[in-house]
Fold:
Amino acid sequence: MLGVVLGAGLSVGPSVQAERRIAPEQPVAATDKPMRWQDARLLAEVLELVRKDYVDDVSDEELIEAAIRGLVGDLDPHSSFLNAEELNEIRISTAGEYSGVGIEVALENGAVNVVSPIEGGPAALAGVLAGDTIVAVDEVPVSVENLDDTIDRMRGKPGSMVKITIARRETPQPLQFTLARANVQVHSVKEKLLEPGIGYVQISHFSETTTPDLEKAIAQLKRRNGSELHGLVLDLRDNPGGLLEAAIGVSDVFLEDGIIVTANGRAADAKFEMDAQPGDALNGAPLVVLVNGGSASASEIVAGALKDHHRATILGQQTYGKGSVQTVMPLSDGHAVKLTTSRYYTPSGVSIHKVGITPDVVIDAKQAADAPKVAGIDYETGLALGLLKDDSTRDTDRPIRQSSLK
Structure:
């Protein structure tokens, strides 16, 4: 199931990386060794052959962009050349705000179905419901092969109008909603109380708003509970990553001190160490982190930091294994390069690249998928709840847990 926020252009999948904030345009650093003239001539020869003899006419602009995409894309799976639209997609996904109608959808059985309308967004206020199927946008049928076109149609300036046609199971005729686009906040954090004293927080991706949203969620859980929490389940399953700063911030919410992550690269700003600041939002209460094969990048930074500091029990399946950091570097004419600039390491100095993080409690994925929910709680969350109840029963006067790595 591919999650897409229509009208936002926010698409989260395994290709999303832990990325640094988009930097202002800056000159490209010179290298000590210039390119050999023979190599430059070879590239020019190939371009000229394609211009003259390729079966179709291709513009110089298209040839140059294709050459650059090939150059950058061949480095590793996470580096890429971005046009203006693709750069804007990254800005939207990391900022957590866009102008559109606010619908989260998924491709299922050849249809674009509404997973949930975003709370407070135009679609939710108009009555669009989870389970609805998007049929058309401005009377143009939705194509599952070209979701980008649908996304573009859903976007627009705040206050501008868009018409959405929806099929609903219990309604024989399609429904039409004429919506005014608005600024919509895409929150990546959801919370609930599993039972008195024990909370649950799910983070879907890491954006600029994730850390403050997490702090608000924990505060809200404490208010609902009427007192401090005795434990928390942090769900990072199928979280593909996002901003590096957000991963550091989320880790710091639960750590008192110590290293969160280190990184090493060739450029001066690609080498860094990030440390936790005093203050644990749970005051040392036990924490279980849920992960699986879709937990990647920024999710692995959080899981690795909390595991190495013995601050949390990691439960689930082996994580994705992406241990690199990408920096988005704007170029001229609105283009940009997303380039792998660092490899990061957990607090114990381990690289998880192409390896992933092994949970403390390994759960068979098929067993977890086949197990029925109990009282609305899935199998792995139920196991985490049991661990937390057992932990809080053994030690109800636990002091604040200090990080063990300095």
